[in-house]
């Protein structure tokens, strides 16, 4: 394709690095709009010389966003947060930030805009994360009607914050919490807690790449999930098997998790917040009949084919058998790690 400019907001994060690599292969010139330009320097070798350029941008500043989009053909907004450091952060980032990007993209005449939301975005949700994701979609669509919105489920891959976090926990403690397992439906489907449909980060990057080039994607919303649905407990058990460990999976009622989160969310990087516990009251799976990866010509990767490629580092050290000569004509075996 003719070399065109695309601006990726939040391109130095987990999904961003995979997307930037894919866009570079597609032939785009990529501006990676981030807060810390130096920290995004690792992205440059993913393309040819001069093809990937980190630039400083503040998504709440229209002038900054406009400068990042000037001369671009398309844009992708990956910016999102999982918890608030200050009250109102969800609204500022998910709603105002997304709207600022969309309005600038529309005013500057960009042909394409892809906005990353989240599966479970719901204006009626009591979880601020889900409610502001829904409000962000509405604001972005009002400003840029032809936007393509993608709603991924839990994204997994080498740098994910889900499996890597729980695998690291197994190194130091024998128990893993299964939040919500005790208070959901008593049916077998929910015996292990809320349901998830994890999607591979490379598949999400491919979906964005296709959405940028297909006219049929303009103005559409897609829900992205993997080929299988798992309960929370099933995901932890699968992760443990890959890591060759046997943790105790402890059901934790939502009320107890919320009480614990009250204290944990005061940490600089909280492992759990009350808002996240609220999210676990509902399943995170694709609604029946919703357009998804298939409509974007992406064949999803199964969890089993990807997890071993990056979780093997959490396995116990392999045992080796060392043969030694005892001087009596026989060998004695000594097992070492």
TrEMBL record:
Region (Disordered) residue spans: 318-337
Record domain NAD-dependent epimerase/dehydratase: where: 6-225
Pfam families (alphabetical): Epimerase
GO molecular function term, any single one: protein-containing complex binding
Protein name in UniProt: NADH dehydrogenase
Organism: Varunaivibrio sulfuroxidans
Highest classification ranks of the organism: Bacteria, Pseudomonadati, Pseudomonadota, Alphaproteobacteria, Rhodospirillales
């Amino acid at each position: 394709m003719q070399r065109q400019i695309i601006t990726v907001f939040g391109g130095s994060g987990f999904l961003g690095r995979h997307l930037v690599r894919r866009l570079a292969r597609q032939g785009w010139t990529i501006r990676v709009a981030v807060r810390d330009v130096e920290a995004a320097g690792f992205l440059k070798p993913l393309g040819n010389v001069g093809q990937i350029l980190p630039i400083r941008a503040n998504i709440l500043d229209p002038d900054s966003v406009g400068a990042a989009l000037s001369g671009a053909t398309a844009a992708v907004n990956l910016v999102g947060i999982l918890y608030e450091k200050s009250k109102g952060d969800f609204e500022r980032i998910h709603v105002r930030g997304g709207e600022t990007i969309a309005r600038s993209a529309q005013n500057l005449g960009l042909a394409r805009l892809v906005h990353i939301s989240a599966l479970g975005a719901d204006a009626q949700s009591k979880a601020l994360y889900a409610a502001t994701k829904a409000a962000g979609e509405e604001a972005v669509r009002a400003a840029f009607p032809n936007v393509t919105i993608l709603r991924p489920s839990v994204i997994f891959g080498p740098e994910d914050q889900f499996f890597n976090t729980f695998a690291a926990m197994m190194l130091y403690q024998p128990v893993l919490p299964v939040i919500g397992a005790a208070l959901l439906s008593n049916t077998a489907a929910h015996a292990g807690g809320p349901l998830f449909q994890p999607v591979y980060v490379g598949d999400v990057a491919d979906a964005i790449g296709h959405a940028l080039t297909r006219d049929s994607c303009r103005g559409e919303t897609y829900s992205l999930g993997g080929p299988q649905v798992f309960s929370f407990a099933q995901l932890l058990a699968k992760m443990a098997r890959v890591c060759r460990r046997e943790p105790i999976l402890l059901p934790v009622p939502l009320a107890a998790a919320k009480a614990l989160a009250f204290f944990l969310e005061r940490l600089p990087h909280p492992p759990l917040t009350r808002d996240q516990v609220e999210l676990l009251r509902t399943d995170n799976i694709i609604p029946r009949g919703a357009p998804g990866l298939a409509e974007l010509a992406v064949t999803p990767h199964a969890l089993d084919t990807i997890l071993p490629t990056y979780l093997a580092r959490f396995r116990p050290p392999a045992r080796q058998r060392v043969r030694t000569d005892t001087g009596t004509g026989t060998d004695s075996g000594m097992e070492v790690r």
